Amino acid sequence: MDEFFPEAVFQIGDLVINRIHLIQFLATIAVVLIFWLGTRRMTIVPGRFQSIVEMGLDFVRVNIAEDLLGKKDGQRFLPILTTIFFMILFMNITGVIPGLNIAGTAIIAVPLLLAVVAYVTFIYAGIKKSPKNFFKNSLFPSGVPWPIYFIVTPIELISTFVIRPVTLTLRLLMNMMVGHLLLVLFFSATQFFLFTMGGWWSALAAGSLAFGFVFTLFEILVAVLQAYVFTILTAVYIQLAVAEEH
User: Fold this and answer.
1) Domain locations along the chain
2) Are 84 and 118 in contact (CB under 8 A)?
3) Which end of the chain is more exposed for a tag (fewer CB within 10 A), N or C?
4) Phi/psi zone of residue 144: left (φ > 0), alpha (ψ -120 to 50 degrees), beta?
């Protein structure tokens, strides 16, 4: 657990930079560099690197933005959805890179920041679509008998404006934390059985090592899935905000 609260690498005034912060900086630099290199000299007939970058961008545009929001609203919110997806993906994947071994999203700062961005975007989209009726329609759904509003309105308030950013934050955070703990457990067990116990215990070391590699592959899948889930939920919330009833 101490790995989630590392000591400061260096400090500038009250600003403390630790190992996880450096990993976050590295992931951010990597994603910016890849997309800059992939798009700075785009050609009609793309090379391999440009093709890979375009495939990533098209995945978010086609399968998330335009699929849920339509072409017009999908194009409007594509930059924020693309940024969220690739920022989460690159920070998640650091959890399985040797030498880094922990996700940049494994501390609450990044998931919370992205949840706030998604929440503000959702509110902005709703107010932009229907300045006068967004909050009214969100808290007082049409077709409900007025006495029922005493029950429905508090539920809508909590579920729409409180639970959504909380669940976005905790879902991403907990998945990355649990994944890191599982990998530490398996590889620590391998080291313990092989070097501390020795003898026939080495057979168990082989088993824990195999499970460690399997869960490493599983963590790669989780890293991609969590980026996808966070982004698609953000798109769903935006879609609800710009729906015609608002």
Assistant:
1) 55-241
2) yes
3) N
4) beta
